[in-house]
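To illustrate this point, we now present one chain and its tokenised fold:
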Amino acid sequence: SRILGDHGAPGMETEIAIHSHSLPFEFPAAVVAEAEAFGARIPQDAIAGRDSHFRGTQGTSIIGLFGGAAAWTGASEKTLKRLGDDDFEKAYLFPNSHAGYYPGAKLIALKFIFRKSDGRVLGAQPLGEDAPAVDKRISALAVAIQMGATIYDLEEAELCYAPQFGSAKDAINYAGMVAANVLDGEMPLAHWDAAE
């Protein structure tokens, strides 16, 4: 057990959430500033008698790139390795931003990280030319991580569908399906960096 500090001190909810969920704890400056601003509200709520707790931050961020976007949320492979955590698997997917038969579909490159032992969603990094599609997927995955969702939850997630916005089986559903196939032994993975 590690003592982080007085549980009532401002910001301790953030540290407790980060450590209890094994989330990365090095964040971009903008994320830290946002967390600190939100964390400042907790003592104010306590003074007002509200039962308010900050669940922590997981570093969800997005940047625009020439009309496209790159985004990330949760734990990265690099962070997990640095922490000595080897109870994770990664999968790379390349789904369309919306139904392929509808004009203008663009690929989304998605790195998806999940827990091998229980299928819990740990992190994701999508990249694509269709920035709103990347934003939509990273936001859904950020909520899934905060809610403790598993890959099996993502398989069954009901997301809005219209051909110009998404597919009947969304990129989020595919991430869950691919990861479930990996954990269930139906689709063994071989990563280039593990080749001898």
Observations:
- The first strand starts at residue 61 and ends at 65.
- Confidence is low (pLDDT under 50) at residues 1-16.
- Helices lie at 12-20, 29-39, 41-47, 77-82, 131-146, 151-156, 171-183.
